[in-house]
Design brief:
By secondary structure, this protein is of the alpha/beta class. The chain has a single domain, classed as Rossmann fold (3-Layer(aba) Sandwich), CATH 3.40.50.300. 48% of the residues lie in helices and 19% in strands. It contains 9 helices and 9 strands. The strands form 2 sheets. Strands 2-7-1-8-9 form a 5-stranded parallel sheet, with helices on both faces. A 4-stranded mixed sheet has the order 4-3-6-5. The protein is globular. The chain binds adenosine-5'-diphosphate and guanosine-5'-monophosphate. Adenosine-5'-diphosphate binds next to helix 2, helix 6 and helix 8.
């Protein structure tokens, strides 16, 4: 399956990862809604729907037993436990879209990104960066979808996620939303950005995040 995806697929796999609250769902939704040759991968998850989320649209909401069965049957291209719940990307759906010529955007965490990057050489891994740690805290709080303690937990995980982001192919700062969408689109169309500057930015954010949220360091 992996070989077929990389060697013969017509569309590309584009992974977008970022610490929770950076804006990856927002960026993916905009690109998915305006680019006819892009499809969003609808993940499977064991977490419960939030707010207005609908089954089959934002996620396929499934129970633990179904998730276990899908793992055993090899139905996932990748899967991971993220923020205490399990999430996975469907293998068959991806294959169908790629062979139909669609680029598939994956809004997934860094563990999933690593699995896809290792399995499929042609996949493009893009890491979104918040413009600052203060702004990340602000976005996560304003979104109003997690409790205070869950927000704190996600911010601690952000330290590790930023570190993992170093291995991604590209880094895009999500400061102005339109610019970030444009940058991801340029990468998708294979125009390379200045990697040196992004690296410096990531190092500085990791330092700031460590100081603020990771008391163990
Ligand atoms: P993620 O999917 O990475 O967890 P979301 O897409 O849910 O993040 O975005 C988190 C919050 O930040 C949302 O309220 C969203 O509207 C807001 N947001 C996203 N991108 C920007 C941006 N460039 N500037 C300001 N707010 C943003
Ligand atoms: P949320 O519960 O806030 O929608 O998502 C939590 C985290 O799970 C986000 O980082 C999101 O990118 C990640 N995620 C969503 N779907 C998948 C998936 O299929 N695989 C992996 N590995 N992570 C996912």
């Amino acid at each position: 399956m992996e070989t077929r995806l990389s060697d013969r697929g017509k569309g590309r796999l584009v992974v977008i990862s970022a610490p929770s609250g950076t804006g990856k769902s927002t960026v993916c939704r905009i690109i998915g809604s305006r680019e006819p040759d892009v499809a969003l991968s609808v993940s499977y998850t064991t977490r419960k729907p939030r707010g207005r989320e609908r089954d089959g649209i934002e996620y396929h909401f499934i129970d633990d037993a179904t998730f276990d069965r899908m793992i055993a049957e090899g139905k996932f291209l990748e899967w991971a436990e993220v923020h205490t719940q399990r999430y996975g990307s469907g293998r068959e759906e991806t294959e169908k879209l790629i062979f139909a010529g669609q680029d598939v955007l994956f809004d997934i965490d860094v563990q999933g990104g690593r699995q896809i990057g290792q399995a499929i050489e042609a996949a493009v891994l893009i890491f979104l960066l918040p413009p600052s740690i203060d702004e990340l805290v602000c976005r996560l709080s304003k979104r109003n979808t997690e409790s205070e303690s869950e927000i704190r937990r996600r911010l601690k995980v952000a330290v590790w996620e930023l570190e993992q982001g170093q291995s991604y192919d590209y880094h895009v700062i999500n400061d102005d939303l339109d610019d970030a969408v444009e940058a991801v689109e340029q990468i998708r169309k294979e125009i390379r950005k200045d990697p040196a500057k992004r690296g410096e930015m990531l190092d500085s954010l990791i330092r700031q995040a460590r100081e603020r949220f990771d008391e163990t360091v």
